[in-house]
Every structure is written in C-alpha cells, then in structure tokens.
Amino acid sequence: MDTLTIVKPDAFGSGRAGQIIAHLEAAGFLIVAARVKLLTRAEAEAFYSVHRERPFFGSLVDFMTSGPCMPLILRREEAVSELRRVIGATDPAEADEGTVRALYAESKERNAIHASDSPENAEIEIAFFFAGTERLQG
Ligand code: CMP
Fold it and tell me: What is the pTM of this model?
C-alpha cells in the first residue's frame, strides 16, 4: 500500500529532510516517488481545502508557501496507519517520544511533516503531486 507524505518547509528549510527520510526508511517505508516543490498559494489552498473554514487556514497557507517542501510517495504494509503512528500527533507537545514530530516539529502548525489520513485521501493526495507514471511500480 502507498501513502503520501510531505516534508514541510520548516524541516526542509532547516536541512532536516535527510534525517526525517532516514527515520522513515528505518521504519520500513520504501520511497517510490519524490520531488522538491515550492507550492503556489493556489496549490496550498487546494491541498488543504478541507481546512478552508478553520481559523488557522491563512497562516497554514503562508507557512506551506514559505519555502520548498518535499512530497514523497511511501510504500509498506499498512502504510497509511503506520506512517501516522511513526510521525506522531499533530501537536509536537502531544506526540509520542521518538516520533518524527516529537523529534523535529516546532509547533502545531510548523510540524515538520504531513501524512495522508486515510487510504482514499492517500490516493487523492498522491495524484495531487505525482503523475501516474512517476511512481515506481511493483
Ligand atoms: P497536517 O497533518 O499537514 O494537516 C493540517 C495542518 O494544519 C497540520 O498538519 C498543521 O500544520 C496545521 N494545523 C492543524 N491544526 C492547527 C492549529 N490548531 N493551529 C495551527 N495549525 C494547525
């Protein structure tokens, strides 16, 4: 099964993308596609459109367009639920010890990494960033 992750502009900009990706590989995820991308405002608004009415939406879009990010497609058994376990809670103050957000996130907004929340959303989010041909087959 595949899922989508994004190393966000806080972690990418401070040079911790490699450490985070190594953490994910050590947790059994195979990278099957990757890119570096500077999101436009329209792209960030579209990606997070489910949060459009939330008070933090404008600030979230500012953050996600503040520098390049790194979307990746990751593969392993139970990829969606396992990735969410490995990255920890949205708020680093609530993230379990040793999770990516406990180790690398600055705040609930600048939280280092995104992960799809369901298999259905994983396919939608994968299609948002990658054309079908870009994903390693198998
Ligand atoms: P992510 O898992 O990418 O999904 C939505 C993002 O919105 C979340 O990570 C955070 O970056 C951000 N976010 C969620 N809740 C809040 C909040 N209460 N305040 C600020 N940002 C938030």
Answer: 0.97
